[in-house]
Amino acid sequence: MRKFLGFLFLLVFLAAIGLFVYTTRAAAPAIAINQPGAYLGAAGTFDVTVTTPGGELTRLDVALEQNGQTHQLFTLPGREGVTLKQEDENTVRVTGPVGKRAVPALANGAARLVVTAERPLLEGYRSRRADAARDLTVRLTPPVVAVVSRHHFINHGGSEVVVYRVTPAEAASGVRVGDREYPGFAASGAVQGADPSLKVAFFALAWDQDRDTPIHVFARDEAGNEARSSFDYQVFPKPFRKSRIELNTRFIERVVPEILAQTPDLPVDDPNNLEAAFLAVNGELRRRNNAFVKNLAAKTSSSLLWSGPFKQLSNTQVEANFADQRTYFYEGREIDQQVHLGFDLASLANAPVEASNAGAVVFAGYLGIFGQCVVVDHGMGVQSLYAHLSSIDVKEGDKVARGQTLGRTGMTGLAGGDHLHFTMLVNGESVTPVDWWSAQWVEDRVLRKFREAGAPGN
Ligand SMILES: [Zn+2]
Fold first, then answer.
1. Strand segments (E) across 302-404
2. How many CB atoms lie within 10 A of CB 304?
3. Span from the CA of 422 to the centroid of ligand 1 (angstroms)
4. Of 117, 138, 159, which closes a domain?
5. Higher model confidence: residue 425 or residue 244?
6. Which of 54-58, 359-363, 382-386, 408-412 has the lowest mean pLDDT?
7. Residue 86: which CATH number?
8. Looking at the domain assignment, is residue 124 inside a domain?
9. Do residue 286 and residue 210 come from a single domain?
10. Is residue 22 part of a domain?
11. Ligand 1 center to residue 310 CA distance, Å?
């Protein structure tokens, strides 16, 4: 009997050790604080994911600690205004507000977001706990932004510039046109001796946006606090033309195989079906090429690299206008519609292609529908694009002067004949070059604003 009791005692002892090892070795929930980052603003949110087997938790607390006080933001089973959802089998995500409205006592200064999560073990008889925290800085005061330039006139499909002041000067700022943002740059890149709070932003009212699209200047600090300033402007309608393009088999046979050979990653079901291959080039490839050009805006210089009006290619005739709505016909049928985002300029075959103004080459090479193509950056988001070249004389990184030869005109890419396809870009958005070719427009819309901004009192 004594032996049996001893054996039983040993069994219980071993089981207890096993349980102890199991409950201490079982993984604790893994907590990730995705939001807020290092700064918390007036309209801040928290975003926390917890990974644990089956997403099962017996406790999940999110709290903000500041000045010796703890403000509970979330606790199980839930709280109004806070979203708790199971993201996948083992992941739970909780998101909710942590700004001034959710925590009225929130004040400028240091604070700490604290998260505690517990998972059940042994049918809930035991548990395993994890804690995580993030130290952050609360900033509740939005930046201050005020427009200083006057007389803003925008041609639909064209460009404009605004000069404004932001404090603190480090806040990100720019112009928002509907859902599109145009970054601002320190005015010292264009106006000598401008103080750091003075900013400049080129922007566009794109051809595909409504004429009454709202436009304002914004400034946003690291904590996400945003200030806006409206300014006076006037929009001039510019009717976009419709044009009809007759495709013939000879044209498609010339351009499509060349483009497909240069673009092996373009999905085409049957390369021998000329019409289907043309539609893939004119649709999907055009979309990809435009997206690539848009991304070149990130390579822009923060300084103005040009001076004076932009140069239209010498001795050229305009063959197609900006934002022509083109309908494509093949064998008597309408097969496609696209918008032509540029100007077609025709001169003699293999004519020298001149840089429209001073700048730096940000792209030189083959680019799908544009064929052999050069993009020149003029600084502060303004760029120019030259397409269908037969040869290129510059390479990425080259500085170019106004009128310098970039290459020769040709008919590479989606081109019906030897011509230069030219467009101006503002932060990657195609805009009409007519504004930029006009000495009066450049003087009134841009240079005068920079001069006035540099004048004492601004
Ligand atoms: Zn063109």
1. 317-320, 324-330, 333-340, 343-346, 352-354, 359-366, 372-379, 382-389, 391-392, 399-400
2. 22
3. 7
4. 138
5. 425
6. 54-58
7. 2.60.40.1930
8. yes
9. no
10. no
11. 19
Instruction: Tell me, in angstroms, the distance from the centre of ligand 1 to residue 373's CA.
Output: 12
Cα dihedral across residues 168, 172, 177, 182: positive or negative:
positive
Which range of residues forms the domain containing residue 134?
Answer: 27-138
Query: Separation of 256 CA from ligand 1 center, angstroms?
Result: 16
CA distance 19 to 343: 77
Distance 440 CA to ligand 1 centre (A): 26
Contact 204, 158 (CB under 8 A): yes
Q: Are residues 31 and 76 in the same domain?
A: yes
Compute, in angstroms, the gap from residue 340 CA to the centroid of ligand 1.
Answer: 6
Say if residue 345 is in the same domain as residue 427.
yes
Q: What is the mean predicted confidence (pLDDT) over 301-320?
A: 86
State the distance from the centre of ligand 1 to the C-alpha of 341, rounded, in angstroms: 7
Is residue 276 in some structural domain?
Answer: yes
CATH number, residue 323: 2.70.70.10
pLDDT attached to residue 74: 94
- Is there a domain that residue 222 lies in? yes
Picking from 27, 96, 26, 108, the residue whose alpha carbon sits closest to that of residue 66 is 108
Split at pLDDT 50, 70, 90, the class of 457 is very low
C-alpha span between 141 and 391 (Å, rounded): 55
Q: Is the pLDDT of residue 64 over 50?
A: yes
Structure tokens at 156: 């639909």
pTM of the model: 0.82
Confidence (pLDDT) at 61: 93
| Count of structural domains within the chain | 3
3-class secondary structure per residue, 257-269: HHHHHHCCCCCCC
Position of tokens 């993201």?
87
CA–centroid distance, 118 to ligand 1, in Å, is 63
What is the pLDDT at residue 316? 76
pLDDT at residue 23 is higher than 80: no
Ligand 1 center–CA 375 separation, angstroms = 15
Q: How far is the CA of 174 from the centre of ligand 1 (A)?
A: 30
Amino acid at 257: P
pLDDT score, position 453: 83
Highest mean pLDDT: which range of 200-214, 229-243, 319-333: 200-214
Q: Is the pLDDT of residue 232 over 80?
A: yes
Least confident of 16-25, 146-155, 173-182, 422-431: 16-25
